[in-house]
TrEMBL record:
Pfam families for the chain: Rieske
UniProt cross-references to SUPFAM superfamilies, sorted A to Z: ISP domain (SSF50022)
Superkingdom, natural source: Bacteria
Keyword Chloroplast (UniProt): no
Protein name (database record): 3-phenylpropionate/trans-cinnamate dioxygenase ferredoxin subunit
PANTHER family documented for this protein: FERREDOXIN-RELATED, RIESKE DOMAIN-CONTAINING PROTEIN
GO-annotated molecular function: 2 iron, 2 sulfur cluster binding; dioxygenase activity; metal ion binding
Keywords, ordered alphabetically: 2Fe-2S, Aromatic hydrocarbons catabolism, Dioxygenase, Iron, Iron-sulfur, Metal-binding, Oxidoreductase
């Protein structure tokens, strides 16, 4: 199951900008690359470093801690190996919407 996160209108995500939003305790890094919005987990799977301010190379972001590069479109690491979660994004009436998995909660 999934749910939708509407990014607040106060988040400035013009072309070339980045931002961080949070949903259910997970930080999500948003990138606007040439008008295309991408959303990935803001945590490198290698050691948890933030990817938000990593160096961009086209649609790849490089982890500032150890240099691993991830494709913003699908979360796959360049060359294979570890991946980050990438989320579907759509822009509806100038609002950014991210489709996220519904968290599993325990009913014990």
């Amino acid at each position: 199951m999934t749910h939708t996160l509407d990014v607040p209108g106060s988040v400035d995500l013009g072309t070339g900008k980045r931002a961080r939003v949070q949903s259910d305790g997970v930080d999500i890094a948003l990138f606007n690359i040439d008008g295309q919005i991408y959303a990935i987990d803001d945590s490198c799977p290698h050691n948890g470093a933030s990817l938000l301010f990593g160096k961009l190379d086209g649609r790849f972001v490089r982890c500032p801690a150890h240099g691993l590069s991830f494709d913003l479109a699908n979360g796959c690491m360049r060359g294979g190996g570890m991946n980050v979660r990438a989320y579907p994004v759509e822009v509806v009436e100038d609002r950014i919407r991210i489709t996220l998995p519904t968290p599993i909660t325990s009913h014990l």
